[in-house]
Amino acid sequence: MTEKARPSPPPTGALFDELLVVLVQQGDRSALSRLHARWDRRLIRAAYRYTGDADLARDLAQECWIGIWKGIGDLRNPGRFRSYAFAILHRRGASHLRRAVRDRENADQIAQETDQAAPQDGRIAIQQAFASLPPDQRLCAHLHFVEGLTLAEIAEVQSIPAGTAKSRLFHARRKLKAALDPNLPEGELP
Question: Of 1, 82, 113, 175, which one has the fewest beta carbons inside 10 Å?
Answer without folding.
Answer: 1
